[in-house]
Structures are given as structure tokens and as C-alpha cells.
Amino acid sequence: RRFRREGFDIVSEQEISFAQAALGDTVNVETIDGEVNLRIPSGTQPDTIIRLRQKGVPHLQGSSRGVHYVRI
Asked: How confident is the model over 32-47, as pLDDT tens digits?
């Protein structure tokens, strides 16, 4: 429910406060492999998308993985 799959990529949403967006912060984000720390840059705007490389769905052949996109 928390994730939407688009091919090998995963999309999720993370709500943050105005202060976190304005000043920057580090928040925990749930991925398909567990929680990771995500650094929110200062001045983040609504609907900003942050990319977490190699945190998406594993490819069937090879060791690469898709990307996990977090929409703020």
C-alpha cells in the first residue's frame, strides 16, 4: 500500500513539516529493504522528488536494481 511500482522502480510519498522543508533535516524513509535515512535539503519545495539509487526492485538477470523515488 505504501509503495507504487513502475517497472523496476518504486515510488512512495513522505510528509515533512514546513520547518523540515525550510531548514533541511534527516528523516527515516521505509523502503522495500527496510528503513533508510534520507537527507532533506534546505529549501525543499512541495512535490520534490528525491532518488534513492539501487533501492528499487531487483532485476531478474544481473545484480542491478531499480530506483526508489520519494515524493516530498
From this structure: 989 999 999 999 999 9
| Dihedral Cα 10, 38, 47, 23, nearest 10 deg | 180
pTM, to two decimals: 0.87
Backbone angles phi, psi at 58, to 5 degrees: -65, 140
Pairing of strands 4-6, 9-13: antiparallel
Please report the pLDDT score of residue 53 as a whole number: 92
3-state helix, strand, coil in the chain (%, to 5): 10, 45, 45
- Rounded CA gap, 56 and 37, in Å? 16
d(CA 60, CA 72): 30
Enumerate residues 6+ apart whose C-beta is below 8 A from 39. 24, 25, 26
